[in-house]
């Protein structure tokens, strides 16, 4: 599908306003250490099966790795009336806006051919951010020894719903967390946590 506005010359005041909003948006992104490139176009997919994140992952992973990056996560979310397909990328030295642009351009065509989503959606290519969520098994294995933040679905007696610690071990969906003075540890099931994030990753 052609991007909105292609072939039409925008009014000068509209162009200035758009650039202003873009500057504000990018300023907020860079302040938080979170980079994201949003496509200006919307895609209308026609597949009857709806969104299949695993198919998007399979499509994007070799493309992202071919650009010298790693694929961190793929998510399809609805926010208000808008739907977003978010592709999170990473590299050891950190992601910048150019990486997001390069990946966005590289996956646009293949995603359009795959046609994985039946609703109109916007594509965003982003970094996981400094407080990235640990989701996949390899994320936990990669960051053993790192400081993490945990929010449980239900409170733990004597601890509560939210706490911090050091990721000591991970195996078969079980996460072992040690306090920062090394005196106590707790093992939780990953599925019992609302989220587990790195604490100010750098």
SSE blueprint and pairings:
Blueprint: H1 12-32, E1 36-38, E2 43-44, H2 53-66, E3 70-79, E4 82-90, H3 97-114, E5 120-126, H4 137-142, E6 147-156, E7 160-171, E8 174-178, E9 185-189, E10 193-198
Parallel strand pairs: 4-5
Antiparallel strand pairs: 1-5, 2-5, 3-4, 6-7, 6-10, 7-8, 8-9
Helix pairs in contact: 2-3
Write the CATH homologous superfamily of the largest domain: RimP-like superfamily, N-terminal
Number of domains: 2
Helix content: 25-40%
| CATH architecture name of the largest domain | 2-Layer Sandwich
Q: Please tally the β strands and state the result.
A: 10
CATH class of the largest domain: Alpha Beta
Overall geometry: elongated
User: In percent terms, what proportion of residues is strand?
Assistant: 25-35%
Which parts are unreliable, with pLDDT below 50 for 5 consecutive residues or more?
Answer: 1-36, 40-51
H/E element sequence: HEEHEEHEHEEEEE
CATH-derived topology of the largest domain: GMP Synthetase, Chain A, domain 3
Subcellular location: Cytoplasm
Domain Ribosome maturation factor RimP N-terminal: 59-131
InterPro entries: Ribosome_maturation_RimP (IPR003728), RimP_C (IPR028998), RimP_C_sf (IPR036847), RimP_N (IPR028989), RimP_N_sf (IPR035956)
Family: Belongs to the RimP family.
Descriptive tags:
202 residues; alpha+beta; GMP Synthetase, Chain A, domain 3; SH3 type barrels; 2 domains; 5-stranded mixed β-sheet; 5-stranded antiparallel β-sheet; 4 helices; 10 strands; 29% helix; 34% strand; membrane; Ribosome_maturation_RimP; cytoplasm
